């Protein structure tokens, strides 16, 4: 055992000296592996970060939450022309479902509106996601009121001119002053601020902290029932422990009857489940990971070939030295380990540099985008980068190392002279 440790130590020291004596060649070899590891880990980290941010934005919703809309959240076999002719999901649909479908814990009607400009005195915030939605959304989504309150059922049904602000939006408009009771202008109309939501952090797309919520019926009064080309949806949160399959069947049957669809007619709506959306996201993430591996793998392969090429050159240059070492009693394993360690050190150092670059970029990205998107470099990806660089070093150096260990000492000395 001690003999092998001594061989390991001497081979390691010899490899380090060889790398130090050929700085330019070492740098060029490092560059190939660095680019390869950087490409793979950067792609994996970006995809993981996207996956985590999407999942975090959906985590506040029950996986059984259902969206009824004319649009599908995922791939569908229904042709585009038929989908375009589906009627918009409107407030009457919401009222029917709320009153006639059993086992509903909460349901809400939402209009997916465009971005609006919000003004308070001299302060103006553009591009704000103002969401017209009924009051039950408070029971469905995972947010809490920090100041004031959410609008009531009466205010929701009558379309009262009230608004609830996200934490960041409230700070942008009012700084440190209390916004409750203040009037702001949205849609060219005055609305009274009655609540500010607790800060939630990053989310999918725009941060929920930068949004605002108004009663859907307030918008419906001046926007053609709230539609005007803007899609609406009924959000349904079923009771706990309910049979989701049976619940979905009852929901479809009753809603089809409400819309007057015959038995041989296809649905003119989609029942979108959050669980299905999560599965769809997982499939997209898997595809992105696969594409990232293929593209980045070529970079890593080039880096591996670069190390192998350099190692063959190194063996050629040191043929005379190898012959002398073997004539003095150096074993084959010593020569083998010597070149294997040299190739592995090259690959590992290159991999560590690649990881360092990804880490620096992740810190810069997090500093630029703030809380709206968190770029994550996980320990798993860091270990994967280190492991891959080690394997690439071993694979790239094994053939040159074997060829060096098999050299005949007399022929090696004569060839090198």
TrEMBL record:
Keywords: Cell membrane, Membrane, Transmembrane, Transmembrane helix. Its main location: membrane. It is a multi-pass membrane protein. The chain crosses the membrane at residues 27-47, 294-313, 334-362, 382-404. InterPro entries: ABC3_permease_C, MacB_PCD, Macrolide_Exporter_MacB. One of its GO terms (cellular component) is plasma membrane. It is found in: Cell membrane. Coiled coil: none annotated. Residues 294-409 form the ABC3 transporter permease C-terminal domain. Residues 26-249 form the MacB-like periplasmic core domain. It comes from the Bacteria. GO terms for molecular function: transmembrane transporter activity. Belongs to the ABC-4 integral membrane protein family. This is ABC transporter permease. It comes from Winogradskyella flava. The lineage of its organism: Bacteria, Pseudomonadati, Bacteroidota, Flavobacteriia, Flavobacteriales.
